[in-house]
Design goal:
This protein is mainly α. The radius of gyration is 17 Å and the shape is globular. It has one domain. Helices cover 77% and strands 0% of the residues.
Length: 212
Amino acid sequence: MTQTSTTSSWWFLLPCVVGALGLFAARQAGDGSVGFYAFTVFTACVYAAGWWFWGSRDAFSGPSVAPQILRGVLLGAALAVVFVAGALVVARIPFLAGPVAQLLDTPDQGGLAPTLAVLVINGIGEELIYRDAVPRQLRGRFTELGVGVVSTLIYCAVTVAMGVPLLVFAAGVLGAVCFYEASRSGRLYSPIAVHLTWSTTMLLVMPLFLSG
């Protein structure tokens, strides 16, 4: 579960760098455009490849899958409630609300189905890299707390490429919760459930609070 990296190489960060470039390109292509979806899927593929090289298949092994998923769904829903409540404040701050509202308009530009699809695909990809592959390679270099802090900071740094300040904050909170779940269970069922529950709720519910 806590496989330690036996090399001093930092090549495992390459998918993070390429992922940041992919997210930046997606935003530059225009939310809801063909380029947006293509670059987002590309980013998810990069993450999946990175996990294949530096992650562990043990992340999806073991019994009691359903309880882990249920726990993740409940945590993700609770996190979503907190963020939706925060939206009531954010809606009054144009500097913060503007970029978020623009990103959440993506379904109106490109359709709800493709937007949900890339949201799920990329969300799973992020968990593969930032809650399994990267932490596994950091173990042996830092304490478990240090691994959580460093991997979450890397996640936040990559999220900067999206150009949405609040997403960086959200990445910090979501990353910390998901890392805890991954570290606690040694698997990715709960972190993925947290991530997807939170992100889909944000996409579907948050616009109701930021739509003017």
